[in-house]
Fold this protein.
Amino acid sequence: MADPVDGGGLSFKPLDQFEVKRLFGEGPIEWYTITNVTMWMAIAVACIVLLLVIGTSKRAVVPNRTQSVAETLYGFVYTMVEDVTGKDGIKYFPYIFTLFIFILFSNFLGLLPMSFTTTSHIAVTAILAFAVFFTVTIIGFVKNGAAFLGLFWVSSAPLALRPILAVIEVISYFVRPVSHSIRLAGNLMAGHAVLKVFAGFAQVGLIIAPVAILGVVAIYALEVLVSAIQAYVFTILTCVYLKDALHPSH
Amino acid sequence: MADTPVEAGAEASGAGMPQLDFSTFPNQIFWLLVTLVVIYLILSRVALPRIASVLAERQGTITNDIAAAEELKMRAQEAEAAYDQALLDARAEAAKIVADTKADIQAKLDVEMQKADAEIAAQTAESEKAIAEIQAGATEAVKAVAKDTAKEIVAALGGKADARTITAAINARMKG
Amino acid sequence: MEGELAHIGAGLAAIGSGAAAIGVGHVAGNFLAGALRNPSAAAGQTATLFIGIAFAEALGIFSFLVALLLMFAV
């Protein structure tokens, strides 16, 4: 993972790994260009198909390991959706499961050395988060009509405070997609950049290099944890927002 | 120091952060949407219904197995109850047979005993009769001897014995 | 000169990560204190714990973002 030393001095390029590159040929990156983004997203899709379609193709009543993993993931997300949003949130389960499984696999694939982390890009996570934001807002208005605005009117607070609280609630509502996306991208970007910085220190010498390599190992372990937790957090926040849309009363 | 991203792919937007290189955004967004749609279709058409059906099937199998086990247990309990009942019946039957046999034997025994008693009683009666006859015979003989002796003694003493008086005297003595 | 000021600003912004760390520690510590008092209720609240940690952490990520922007984008 360590970059080669350019001309003698220390070379930290912690952000090179996030570069979007053409896979074939030269030229500008158009919207349809096949890039490393395309490749790693396709690998994620392939892994998902491998786990959830090929892995469960036997439909065994007594599952093997792959099918067991697929069923565990299914049960995990299903329970989460049911617990947080209630029974009427179940019909959005495929959508939430799509988000969860895509983020989970992108995060984990990004941890492979030399790989590209699609979810470390603001563009990707912002689309994910704004998709959630618009979906949830539309569902809220379709299901509840104008009563959805009751979400911002905290009826349990004293009357004098309610307008102020309403302003705060509205602001926090619109900040949701921003924090939702930046949390995911920022966590992954920070983790991967720190890994690269530690890897850069591994060039330094006999004394610092072992420490740096141990640091890489430790940070890598932390990043494995963070990958899973961030996928979980993104999903559960989606469920919480969906619950707000389905039951806007505080 | 890192302000020199001279790699080939970095378009000259000047920004060091690839995340803020807006020229790559349409590309990423396009491929992300493609990916999400593909994953959504695969999941909602194939994977999730399949997993749901497998889970439901497993739940059904477990429920069925539990029901079957319950039924088997009930049947075993029934069989045990029937066995116990049969055992009780057999015991009662045996007790009855024992009682019947006992009664039968007792009845036979009673009849035999009665028969024996009657025989013994008849024999006893016969013996008593014989004894009484012998006794009577002996008394008569004693009486006759006593009368004759008394008559002879009276005659020898020079008296004239009245037969009736002697008989009465002897009878009185014999009773005493 | 301006670039050097930006680097100093980036370093200052990175302090925000430490503040977020305090926040996350606070959330997790209070959760643990509560969970040890009533362990039976703890399992049902892990989702809340993660949501709380996520919110506390998001603000730290914002400061990290500011640092990155100052380093590379200004």
